[in-house]
Write the C-alpha cells for this entry.
Amino acid sequence: MFVAERMTKHPVTVTSETSISDAAKLMKKNHFHRMLIVDNGKLVGYFSDRDVMRVAPSPATTLSRYEIRSLLDKMKVKEIMQKKVITVKEDATVEEAALIMYNNKVGGLPVISDVGALVGIITATDILKTFVNVMGLPSGKTRLTLEIEDKIGTIADITKIFAENDVNLDSIITCRRDDGKYDLVVRVDDRENGLDDIKEKLEAKGYKVIHIAKIGDNR
C-alpha cells in the first residue's frame, strides 16, 4: 500500500503573501489545525493554529475588533510560517509514512512528487483507515493470538494446521514481547461454528492460544 493511494489529493493551501486574517478564516472554515504554504507550485512552509494565536492580540487588549482585523490583515503568513517541513514521497509505503509521523510526533505529512511538487497530504486518520481496511475488519474477522517462540518452521507448522482443517488465513502478524517470546496474531474469516477444534489441535502441538475474539461485522 503506497502513500499515493491513501493520501488526500489537492490539499487546500495558501501562499506566503496571504494575510493571516484570510488564512485564519480558511482554517476555521475547513476545521484545519495546520495550513500548508505553496509559492509557485513549491512547498515553502506551514503554520498552525498555535502560530496564529501567538501573534493575535490578547483577549485583554484594548484594541477594537476593527483594529484587530486591520492588524491581522496587514500581517502575512510568511511572518509566522515554519520553514522546515517534514514530508514524504508519494511513492513511499504507508508504513514508511507512519514511521516518519511516529518518529517526529506529527499528525500528518505533506506528500511531494519526485520533482518536489506538493501532490497531497496524508494524516494519522488516513493511516488508521488503511490499517482497518487492510485487516478487513469491517467485513468481520476472527482473531486468534498464539504464544510462540522464535523457531524455524513455526509459522509453516501453524499454517498447516489451519489448512488441514479447511480454514483460510486472512493475515498473520508477529509481535515480539519483552520476555523474548512472540505473540502470533492470526486473522481468519468470521466463522459461526467457532474455532474450538483448531484451538485444541494447536495446543496439542504445543502452541498456546491465549486469546480469541471476533472483530467487525459479525452478522
